[in-house]
């Protein structure tokens, strides 16, 4: 069998430190992030705008009464959008049908199951973030959870990124080389304090996707790293800066800029585009949180009008309607019901008014707030 050519073989006579990029050769000479060329006047201006949007998002997040619920909602939204970028088409509504159940093995809804594995990866990484910061171990765990099997750093050859017209990119090969490149990337992202964290995030995402450390799952793992890194750098209250919605809406631009940055070495267009995504995403989440904050009071008024003699407290209705979904155990844990049976009765009573919808097939029963679902997803 003929061996796959490498960039070292193809450029043996080249005197440049980093030979010209060629899609059909393994990019074993992938250069490190050019720190000194990242911050241009335009990048600095976009950074300031994106930072203001993030400050607004931090204020909106701080007002949200239940950060755990918010994180769970955004994890579903991000998992659906990030999976859609990879051609895995499902909806948050379909994911909710299987939320909390063992993932199906009979292929009844493989796309929903696939997206839910990525949701689980996001939640797991969030819960481990203090003990396992952004790095190679975290990326391996996240990618393995998303793919549902162990995903080690690539050891052999054969991985290429191809399109309709042939090979688009061939990433570096060899576990030692890949790990060394990742170590250099994490050092840049953690330690280069002369570069704004948002610029490091943007450049780091491009470099991670170029290193392409796993046989599969690199896109979703890289976008999860963006969420965790912005939180790690204290730019967000929670790792909820879900970039995938922006990327999904501009997918051709995303892939074009990934490719052109490798070809030209001009990082400014990519960085500006990513910073615009930070601003747009932060503004969207903050705006959606503001709209969601109005839902509970509207629901209380609707409930009182529909069931004027009901004994359910406004506090209970407010609790239920500030969430995307709710179970009887949530009411018990919040001390709004003494027992699961009483909580279930309350949830069914609220459902009778049209505020909630029962999602069948769950134990305990799962109730969906359709207004919150529509607000975040348009479904």
Which geometry do the CA atoms define? elongated
Number of strands: 5
CATH topology of the largest domain: Fic-like fold
CATH architecture assignment of the largest domain: Orthogonal Bundle
Helix content: 55-70%
The secondary-structure class comes to mainly alpha
Please trace the helix and strand order, writing H or E for each element. Answer: HHHHHHEEHHHHHHHHEHHEEH
CATH superfamily of the largest domain: Fido-like domain
* First-residue to last-residue Cα separation: 51 Å
Strand line-up in the sheet with most strands: 3-5-4
Overall radius of gyration = 23 Å
- Tally of separate domains: 2
Q: Major beta sheet, specifics? A: 3 strands, antiparallel
Number of helices: 17
Q: What amount of the residues lies in strands?
A: under 5%
**Which parts are unreliable, with pLDDT below 50 for 5 consecutive residues or more?**
1-17
SSE blueprint:
Elements lengths: L6 H4 L30 H23 L3 H19 L6 H7 L11 H19 L7 H12 L13 E3 L2 E4 L5 H17 L5 H15 L6 H15 L11 H6 L1 H14 L3 H26 L1 H12 L7 H8 L3 E3 H6 L6 H13 L4 E3 L6 E3 L1 H8 L2
Antiparallel strand pairs: 1-2, 3-5, 4-5
In short:
This protein has 379 residues and is mainly alpha-helical. It contains 17 helices and 5 strands. The protein folds into 2 domains: 7-291, Fido-like domain (Fic-like fold, Orthogonal Bundle); 294-377, Orthogonal Bundle (Arc Repressor Mutant, subunit A), CATH 1.10.10.
Describe this structure in words.
It contains 17 helices and five strands. It is mainly alpha-helical and 379 residues long. It has two domains: 7-291, Fic-like fold (Orthogonal Bundle), CATH 1.10.3290.10; 294-377, Arc Repressor Mutant, subunit A. Strand 1 (161-163) and strand 2 (166-169) form a beta hairpin. Helix 2 packs parallel to helix 12, helix 3 packs across helix 5 (110-128) and helix 13 (295-306) packs across helix 14 (314-321).
């Amino acid at each position: 069998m003929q061996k796959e050519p490498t960039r070292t073989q193809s450029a043996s006579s080249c005197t440049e430190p980093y030979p010209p990029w060629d899609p059909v050769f393994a990019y074993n000479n992938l250069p490190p992030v050019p720190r000194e060329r990242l911050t241009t006047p335009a990048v600095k201006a976009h950074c300031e705008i994106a930072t203001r949007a993030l400050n607004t998002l931090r204020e909106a997040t701080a007002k949200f009464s239940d950060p755990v619920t918010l994180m769970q909602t955004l994890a579903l939204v991000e998992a659906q959008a990030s999976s859609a970028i990879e051609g895995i088409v499902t909806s948050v509504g379909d994911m909710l049908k299987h939320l909390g159940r063992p993932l199906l093995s009979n292929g009844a809804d493989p796309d929903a199951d696939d997206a839910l594995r990525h949701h689980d990866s996001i939640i797991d990484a969030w819960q481990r973030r203090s003990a396992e910061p952004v790095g190679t171990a975290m990326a391996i765990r996240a990618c393995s959870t998303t793919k549902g099997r162990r995903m080690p750093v690539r050891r052999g050859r054969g991985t290429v990124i191809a399109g309709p017209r042939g090979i688009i990119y061939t990433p570096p090969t060899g576990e030692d080389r890949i790990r060394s490149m990742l170590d250099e990337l994490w050092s840049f992202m953690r330690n280069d304090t002369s570069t704004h964290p948002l610029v490091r995030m943007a450049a780091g995402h491009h470099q991670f996707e170029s290193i392409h450390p796993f046989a599969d799952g690199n896109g979703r793992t890289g976008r999860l790293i963006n969420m965790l890194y912005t939180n790690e750098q204290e730019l967000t209250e929670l790792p909820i800066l879900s970039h995938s919605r922006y990327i999904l809406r501009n997918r051709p631009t995303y892939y074009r800029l990934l490719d052109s940055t490798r070809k030209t070495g001009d990082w400014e267009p990519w960085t500006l585009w990513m910073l615009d995504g930070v601003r747009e995403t932060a503004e969207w989440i903050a705006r959606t949180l503001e709209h969601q904050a109005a839902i509970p009071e509207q629901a209380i008024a609707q409930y009182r009008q529909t069931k004027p003699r009901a004994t359910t407290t406004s506090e209970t209705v407010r609790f239920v309607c500030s969430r995307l979904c709710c179970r009887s155990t949530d009411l018990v844990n919040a001390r709004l019901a003494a027992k699961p049976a009483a909580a279930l009765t309350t949830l069914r009573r609220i459902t009778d008014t049209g505020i909630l919808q029962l999602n069948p097939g769950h134990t305990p029963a799962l109730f969906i707030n359709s207004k919150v679902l529509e607000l975040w997803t348009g479904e």
